[in-house]
Structure formats: C-alpha cells, structure tokens
Amino acid sequence: MDKIRWGDFERVELRAGTIVRAEPFPEARAPAYKLLIDFGPDIGHKKSSAQITDLYTVEELVGKQVVAVVNFPPKQIGPFMSECLVTGFHREENSVVLATVDKDVPNGARLA
C-alpha cells in the first residue's frame, strides 16, 4: 500500500450530500442510476452516475445522505456528465454499498 502525505488527503474534498433525485440510466454500459445530489448552498447540486442498481432502488435513494468527492473534474459517461464521485465499498460479489453518514449532518459538511 502506497503511503500518502497529510497534504494529499487534505486536497480531496469528501463532502456529505443528500440525494434529491435518482433515475435509471439505461444508456450506461453497466446498470446504473443518474443521481442529483444537494451539497448545500456553497457547492450546490451535482450530478453523478452510480452502479448501485443491485442493492438500491430509486425510491430508497432519494433522501439518503452519501459521501462524495466533489473536486474531481467532470467526467463524460455516455450522454451524461458526472460532476462528482459517490463513494462506497465493494462486497465479495462486487456489488457496491454506499458510504453514508449514520446521523444527519449539514449538506456540504466535509469529512474530518
């Protein structure tokens, strides 16, 4: 495992945000959803694509607070422009469990 310096970690903007919209992304190569996430007044809303269809439904995603990297450059995914990276953990069967907060925090709160 490569070691990083504290300054490297500080450059990554890991923020809490609430999913305000989730919808199927049928054009994606692998099953995915398109998400709209509210990161509060300073950052605003950002879009992301997430391959989490095997563990989550659209209905259960709306209102869920997630942890995302908000300072990556936008990435084109088919016809969709992703503006942040929602984080999660792979299970043995390769499905992804979202990284979430266990108590509500303000949207845009930075991982400490």
The H-and-E topology, N to C, reads as HEEHEHEEEEEE
- Integer tally of domains: 1
Number of helices: 3
CATH class call: Mainly Beta
Chain-averaged pLDDT:
96
Give the termini distance in whole angstroms: 22 Å
How much of the sequence is in beta strands?
35-45%
Let me know the largest β-sheet: 5 strands, antiparallel
What percentage of residues falls in helices of 4 or more residues? 10-25%
Query: What is the CATH homology-level superfamily?
Result: Nucleic acid-binding proteins
Fill in the CATH topology: OB fold (Dihydrolipoamide Acetyltransferase, E2P)
How many distinct beta strands?
Answer: 9
Spans where pLDDT lies below 50 across 5 or more residues: none
Order of the strands making up the biggest sheet: 3-2-1-4-7
Radius of gyration: 14 Å
Just name the CATH architecture.
Beta Barrel
- The best one-word shape is globular
